[in-house]
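Researcher: Before we compare anything, I want clean individual predictions. No alignment, no superposition, just each chain on its own. First chain goes here; please echo the sequence and then give the structure tokens.
Model: Echoing the first chain and its structure:
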Amino acid sequence: MNTNGQYVAINGVRLWVEDTGGTGPPVLFSHGLLWSTRMFDAQVATLRSRYRCIAWDHRGQGQSDVPNVRSISIEDCYADAVALIERLGVAPVHIVGLSMGGFVAMRLAARRPDLVRSCVLLETSAEAEPSENVPRYRTLNRVARWFGLRVVAHKVMPIMFGTTFLTDPARAVERDAWRERLARNRRDIWRAVNGVIEREPIMPELGHITTPTMIMVGDEDVATVPLKAERMHAAIRGSKLVRIPHAGHSSSIEQPGHVTAAIEAWLERLMSTSPINT
């Protein structure tokens, strides 16, 4: 991200936080499982000239502390997000959440509308993990716990990325770099994976969301399929649904130009209609 990074003590752990600073409206980025703030480098590079971009690594992932628990729950990560916004004094924020990051973003928008100016949800779901996925994910998680993610990276990549990204010869170097990032995850990432597998659905609370919300989904996403985005769109009043061509579950990486342009247009429209310009 090429910005100021530091540890911030939140709820008994140190979270790694990267903050471009400045006086622009704050945009908070919440990453997906097995990744880090790096998921949003392309978006931050464009938006930072007009917005204060803040991205953090969820507890148990990236450079943040890993608590010694069996499962790092989404509720814990939601509480971290609340505390971080309040600690930085940046409310209300535009929050951008991808996959697991979207689980956190939806909870913020539903429960703490005072902290959220708008919500952008990428490749995410308001439902519990489908029962048919759980045995496979638990097996992968057990292997990763004992032998490291490098052993199962070849099985995880098709979950994380769409066919276009995985087969494009022109993106081989980029693809290898992301595979290596995935493989380098610490073995104790299993604690965060448990939290995602065992999450409670947030669908019953979506009716409480009144902040402007844009839902984006890649047409090649096999982890949270487009139908799930459609159900969220139906449940969140006034939400906007955007389909991303040739993108899988990591659209901010796979189609960075498309995703960034959509977010930029979204923020500009909200700024132009807001009396407080946030």
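Researcher: Okay. Second chain, same rules.
Model: Second chain and its structure:
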Amino acid sequence: MKTKASLLLLALTSFFFSAAQAQEVRGDAKAGEKKNAMCIGCHGIVGYQASFPQVYHVPMISGQSAKYIASALDSYRKGDRKHPTMRAIAGSLSDQDIADLAAYYADHGHAGAAAPPPAELPAALKDKLAVCVACHGANFSTTPDPANPRLAGQHADYLTLTLKSYQADAGHLVGRSNPTMNAMAKTLSEAELRQVADFLSSLPGELKTVPQSHFR
């Protein structure tokens, strides 16, 4: 019995060790540059606008952290994020593909400049935005956890659409399922939602769109 128990324990230890290793896929930025053909048609054109579910600027992803990009793509792949185009693209990617693309865009256009100072929160939104600082950082550009996105300088219309997606949860065609963000977004009125997006967009940050050679 002891032998069987020991073998079972060894098997379980091996299984969990392998699972942990599988989750730690290392990204290769150079490999990601060769895999981004499906990305550059939207994210490699400065000022590019998508038209579904409304007209908005696609997000700037150059300069986001690799951990956040990988998390976002995995959320599309699992269906926690519902946008049809992104779900189709993410669904075609392997774990290694995601890690490589995340590494590429994290390095791509990353300025490496000094972090912006803490943002001065507008009085009318102070209570709402103070909650956001815990995850997105005092300057909304340097996040405590790189799995959380940088928001400073992002397109206001994209941020507006994103907050609306969290208000819709995952039951909507473009909804997003994240308990923390779902709860936070639902406290915002339509006017507050747009004010938050405008404020975040006005802040200095590291996000940018770096044109690909195809579109220069």
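Researcher: What stands out in the second chain?
Model: The radius of gyration is 19 Å. Additionally, Strands lie at 49-50, 56-57.
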